[in-house]
């Protein structure tokens, strides 16, 4: 909690405006800011601070107040990171004076003053001065209202949440953060809400604030579950609207056709022309019906072909098994081929049973998880720690599929966890019918570009004695058959963590 102030620096506004290439002076000022950023990247805080101050002054002379304020705020952060609070407060007073001297709109000034007030709040938060921090929050609220800028108002909510979490007021922090998430969710900006949650979780981890990480992650999971329902409702509403529009269009066309028929009856002179038009409409309608039937036949053919393909592959595996049984199973290549055929057989059966209803049995979660972890104890390297975190409770799962998935993930963890590393198996109940298993291990991360590929079968051609790459695709298919999903947690930075979500 004490280090929480460090995350404030990471969430400052990026308000710098690109320099105008037409002016040599602007180019020089831009170079000052670039030098500051280069020095900061190399860890030279003192020299980076000096360059930011010079860039702040030059931008102010050129009338680029937004870039000036941005550089002044960054220099301020570098001052108080070195405990130079006197210089930091003095610089902010100068920045506020520069803002007041500008001939810009009141709302623009309020948005800029908001940045300086936020920086003062960061310092008071760092110094643990609760009353002063609260005073700056009130000033920030006034500036945010005057700025008439939704981004600034959202940032205010975010900083209020940080303040409440810092001083242990978790309920108020949750309420403010939920207000911000609800605001963006109401605007259907789901991606922005998810990004805000992930930013807050990441900042909590960087600041070593276990409280903030736990609160944020719990709220994130609850929001994500709820947004699935919102998206489904939106899609359903859109589909209903489309159906209603189509019905209205059909009704309108029917009315038009009835009117035309009345005209045909009343105006015999135009009977021939209208008859031709009517025949044309009928032809179009019949053609549409025929195309619809052809599409249905095509879809059915594709489905039948997939089923036949799965049966064909299964038959091939079954026919090759007797031949392989006559070979020496002690040879690595023969054993690898037998495993490969077994995996293909399993994959084919899973793909052909996409509409299968899996059977559920009651499982005692804690001894079940401990038993699975015990199976890999003799497979791990020296000094590896095995941790199981599961409550004493009973839940309904398909024991065959669940055991297969977790055993495979734990075996992979045992193989790739280095000496003195750690392997975790956790269970969390996410709702009345929602469950989550987490399998994590320390070591090297799976690269981001490969996280989706590892769940795809037959993606590479390799020596079967080194693995056939079907383990994770089979686990993924089993998770789907259990009305769930298997994925890799992108937020886990200590190694690799697989997340198995199940719903029943």
Q: Which characteristics define this entry?
A:
disordered N terminus, alpha+beta, five-stranded mixed beta sheet, 9% strand, 504 residues, two-stranded antiparallel ribbon
Structure characterization notes:
The protein is an alpha+beta fold and about 500 residues long. It has helices spanning about 5-10, 25-40, 45-60, 65-80, 85-100, 105-125, 130-145, 150-165, 170-185, 190-205, 210-265, 270-325, 330-350, 365-375, 400-415, 470-480, and strands spanning about 360-365, 385-390, 395, 420-430, 435-440, 485-490, 495-504. A five-stranded mixed sheet has the order 2-4-5-7-6, covered by helices on one side. The longest helix is centred in the middle third of the chain and has 57 residues, at about 210-265. The two termini are about 40 Å apart. Mean pLDDT is about 80; it is low at about 1-30.
Give a concise summary.
Helix content is 67%, strand content 9%. With 504 residues, the chain is α+β, with helices and mostly antiparallel strands.
Distance between the termini: 38 Å
Elements, N to C (H/E):
HHHHHHHHHHHHHEHEEHEEHEE
Residue share in β-strands: 5-15%
- For the residues shown, what is the average pLDDT? 79
**Strand adjacency order, main sheet:** 2-4-5-7-6
Low-confidence segments, given as residue ranges, are: 1-28
Oligomer: single chain
Shape: flat
Number of strands: 7
Biggest sheet, in brief?
5 strands, mixed
Q: Structural class of the secondary elements?
A: alpha+beta
Over all CA atoms, what is the radius of gyration?
A: 32 Å
Number of discrete helical segments:
16
Question: Which percent bin holds the helix content?
Answer: 55-70%
